[in-house]
Amino acid sequence: MPSGDYACRFAPDGWDEQDWIQVKSPRWDHPGGWVQRGEHIENRVPPDAAPAQMLGVRAGETYSSMVLARAPVQDVRVRAVVSFDDRMAPLVVLAGPLGTDHRGAPEYRQHIEIALFDEGVNVWHHTWTEAGGPAWNKAAWWACDLAPGTPHELVVERRGPNLSLAVDDRRCGCRLEGLPAAVRPGLTGCEGVNRFYEFAVSTPED
């Protein structure tokens, strides 16, 4: 593959943790982390939490995220094969420059999340300021039924302010102004048990 491309399967012999940077959310003091399960990885979740709690009061305990430990890129195509239990929410993340938390651990600042859940896709634009901390807004949404417990292919292409999205055989797009010029691609699991099977990064085709 071209030198700037990356691809892995999240099987025990299919990926290297050293290729990634584990990143915290500025919303929660939770380190995250991953569990290897046969041919996929899962975000760590509290074993005593009910699904409704993981969507609500204990959501912060389910958050695991990482980005590729490579130089940021501008236009990019990201492909991920994911699934979720219950309702949500595996996602592809496109992160601007990272910050650090009070312990010096990598932490998100401005970033974009393209999240799958049982009712479709949400695109979240996260920002951060020194004075106000994190803020976020739903920049786009796409209503479609996505089955829990079933692998779905999510493809995200970023070209400047334009995002092209595909889930399985369905496609849509949106335009977001004010994105970082260059981003690090990655993935996040949150608000339930999320599974990640494959991940690939390449330059968008003309």
Please give a structural write-up.
The protein has 206 residues and is mostly beta strands. The protein has a single domain, classed as Exo-inulinase, domain 1 (Jelly Rolls, Sandwich), CATH 2.60.120. It is built from 1 helix and 17 strands. The strands form 3 sheets. Strands 1, 3, 4, 6, 13, 14, 15 and 17 form an 8-stranded antiparallel β-sheet that branches. Strands 2-5-16-7-10-11-12 form a 7-stranded antiparallel β-sheet, with no helix packed on it. It has a two-stranded antiparallel sheet with strand order 8-9. Strand 14 (162-167) and strand 15 form a beta hairpin. The longest helix has 5 residues, at 51-55. It is globular and about 45 Å long.
Keywords:
mainly beta, 1 helix, Jelly Rolls, 206 residues, seven-stranded antiparallel β-sheet
| CATH architecture label name | Sandwich
Main pleated-sheet profile? 8 strands, antiparallel
User: What is the average of the pLDDT values?
Assistant: 94
H/I helix tally: 1
Estimate what percentage of residues fall within beta strands: over 45%
Work out the count of structural domains.
1
